[in-house]
Design brief:
5-stranded mixed sheet, cytoplasm, 3 domains, 9-stranded mixed sheet, Helix Hairpins, Rossmann fold, elongated, BirA Bifunctional Protein, domain 2, alpha+beta
Length: about 575
């Protein structure tokens, strides 16, 4: 046992040596030699029969995210959330699992993809499949009839994952919904506007938003001769037209779902049409479709919708597509789906859709399914397919070899000589208290070169350097990492007057009226330093920083005055 313990120690030490050589970028021959020693030691060690064997992996359809990937995700989320807030949405959250009966019967053929949980004490539970059904349950349970909300959270589907295309079993949805009784198509038009704003802001490529209406689909099925009992299952087949050919869809409807071939042909005449408001007007004149009440209502609303979309300036991004079906059972009116476009292979061809990145629609009856009295709350919403967007953005950054910052640190507190840890800790504490994002290396006596290299590797734009000479002179040296420009500042000016760069490499601050580069962003002064200012310092700083800085300092010092009765400016 003692021999084995000694061998394990040798393996650990040798493993650390190999890792150290790799970090130091030693020669390949030296690394290979040490790796061979490590393997020899491991061979002597042999298998450990006492340890359980298991595979280190994430479950199928899930993944981990590195700091770089999370930085990309946060940027995407920021774009989406800012748009939702710009349109006046509130935020809610709901449990990650629901009662099984809450989710059952809401998703059509996709209900088989719901994850059921093992009975843990009398309640049959399932992981949420989307955020829409929990939202409807939330409205009914809290007796809400009017809300504009967004919700960003993970959902779960027992699907066959295609992870390279952003298709997972655990993934985020970003939902925006408007609930309440309003004039026709105004909330629907805003949802489409939001969808276009987000996709344009993310700059992931050209896109097209397909729109249709479930009432038009149901009316079309009725006049084509589809039995009422087959409406939803035929709808699910039509929804596959963006992935497979019409012939394959027809074979499924006839061969698997028992639809008469002539009925399928009549459906094919309609669902292969797409266009703009002119197609809506054409179908309003269709001798059969115009006689169906449901279809007529849907076409009338779509015509009004296109009027609003024109006013919003996004009509050129919208296509009325009769093949769009959206297989979820709860949709009752307008439905839409955004797809990214692939440039045409040859001139004159139409761009091809390469995948859905957002979708939504109107669901006026879903809340009533949960309300004890069946009271309906009209709702319309959208969901952004962020996982596919993440995949696209990540691939683009990798292709461009673009560096992504994984922290927001503004300044590194560094020392030029040994035995200056105390001064570094005091300075960084003041920076943190002032709300400045700062770091220092966790070594008592780090080398200055190592500190500067750390800034370059992590993208930190500024270094506040403390050295023996700086301490004698009562200053702190502020260095721009990118431009290597340096300037000595008093600790007071450094903490209350220096300005972080709007762009990497710019030293942007003013000091006592002497400007380096016009400043873009003012760092809030640290209250503990403001409290120690003399009247001369206050006057000098106010003059040098200009009107904006003066207003801020006045506000901060007023707070201190109210608290202590001193330090007025």
């Amino acid at each position: 046992m003692a021999d084995r313990a000694a061998l394990e120690d040798l393996v650990r030490v040798q493993g650390e040596r190999v890792r150290g050589l790799k970090q130091q970028k030693a020669s390949a021959e030296q690394i290979e030699e040490e790796v061979a020693k490590l393997l020899k030691l491991k061979a002597q060690l042999g298998p450990d029969e006492g340890k359980p064997k298991f595979v280190l992996k994430t479950p199928k359809g899930t993944r981990d995210y590195s700091p770089r990937q999370m930085a990309v995700r946060e940027k995407v989320f920021d774009v989406i959330i800012s748009c939702f807030k710009r349109h006046g949405a509130e935020v809610i959250d709901t449990p990650v699992f629901e009662l099984k009966e809450t989710l059952t019967g809401k998703y059509g053929e996709d209900s088989k993809l719901i994850y059921d949980l093992k009975d843990q004490g009398g309640e049959l539970l399932s992981l949420r499949y989307d955020l829409t059904v929990p939202f409807a349950r939330y409205l009914a349970m809290n007796k809400l009839t009017n809300i504009k909300r967004y919700h960003i959270a993970k959902v779960y589907r027992r699907d066959n994952p295609a992870m390279t295309r952003g298709r997972y079993r655990e993934f985020y949805q970003c939902d925006f919904d408007i609930a309440g009784q309003f004039d026709p198509m105004l909330p629907d038009a805003e949802c489409l506007k939001i969808m276009c704003e987000i996709l344009s802001s993310l700059q992931i490529g050209d896109f097209l938003v397909k729109v249709n209406d479930r009432r038009i689909l149901d009316g079309m099925f009725a006049i084509c001769g589809v039995p009422d009992s087959k409406f939803r299952t035929i709808c699910s087949s039509v929804d596959k037209l963006d992935k497979v050919s019409w012939e394959e869809v027809k074979n499924e409807m006839v061969g698997e779902k028992g639809l008469a071939p002539e009925v399928a042909d009549r459906i094919g005449d309609y669902v292969q049409q797409h266009g703009g408001v002119s197609l809506v007007e054409q179908l309003l004149q269709d001798p059969k479709l115009s006689q169906n009440k449901q279809a007529l209502e849907g076409l009338g609303d779509l015509k009004l919708l296109f009027e609003y979309l024109t006013l919003f300036g996004i009509a050129d991004k919208i296509s009325f597509d009769l093949s769009l079906a959206r297989g979820l059972d709860y949709y009752t009116g307008v439905i839409y789906e955004a797809v990214l476009l692939q440039p045409p292979a040859r001139a004159g061809e139409e761009p091809l859709g390469v995948g859905s990145v957002a979708a939504g629609g109107r669901y006026d009856g879903l809340v009533g399914m949960f309300d004890p009295k069946g009271r309906k709350v009209p709702c319309v919403g959208l969901s952004i397919g962020v996982e596919r967007i993440f995949s696209i953005v990540e691939q683009r950054l990798e292709a461009l070899e673009e560096k992504v910052r994984t922290t927001e640190t503004q300044v590194l507190v560094a020392s030029a000589q040994k035995k200056l840890l105390e001064e570094r800790l005091k300075l960084i504490s003041e920076l943190w208290d002032a709300g400045i994002k700062a770091e220092l290396l966790y070594k008592k006596n780090p080398k200055l070169l190592n500190q500067l290299q750390y800034c370059e590797e992590t993208g930190i734009p500024l270094v506040a350097i403390i050295g023996e000479q700086e301490l004698k002179d009562g200053v702190i040296k502020l260095r721009s990492v990118a431009s290597r420009e340096e300037e000595a500042l008093s600790p007071l000016t450094c903490l209350t007057g220096f300005l972080l760069p709007a762009e990497p490499g710019l030293m942007t601050r003013r000091r006592h009226g002497r400007s380096a580069v016009e400043h873009k962003m003012l760092i809030p002064p640290c209250p503990s330093f403001l409290a120690r200012w003399t009247s001369e310092e206050k006057t000098l700083w106010r003059k040098s920083k200009g009107e904006q800085a003066s207003r801020f300092a006045s506000a901060e010092l007023s707070k201190l005055s109210e608290e202590s009765g001193t330090h007025t400016i």
